[in-house]
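Subject: Protein entry, chain in single-letter code together with its fold tokens

Category: Structural biology, sequence-to-fold work with a learned token vocabulary.

Notation: Tokens come from a learned vocabulary of local backbone shapes, not from coordinates.

Start of record: The labelled sequence and token lines come straight after this line.
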Amino acid sequence: MPAIKIEMGNKWKIETAVSIKNIVMNAVKNTLGLKSSDRNIRVLRYDQDLFELKDNYEVFIEIQLAKGRSTETKRELYKNIVESIEEKTLFSKENILIFINEQPEENWGVNGGISLADFK
């Protein structure tokens, strides 16, 4: 049950933001083997004066996950995201910054306040 946040400047059209949202969600779903209904994703578009990333970066993607994915799975996820975005949008791979934030299951409250560690 990942929680995904995509941040970008508002110089990009809303259609571009929606396209990136769908690309990222599909890559996460396919790479991690999630159900289609397992969607927690939001896109934030900022006024350019309020959004600044290191040179070359235009999109910042943060994926919050429960701990437990292998380094190889994370590498595959990075690759799937950037290659799909580059293929289907105006962004090149070098424009995309991805950050994975892993948390223990007890840090996730789901289904009415049940710890994810107890939910299984």
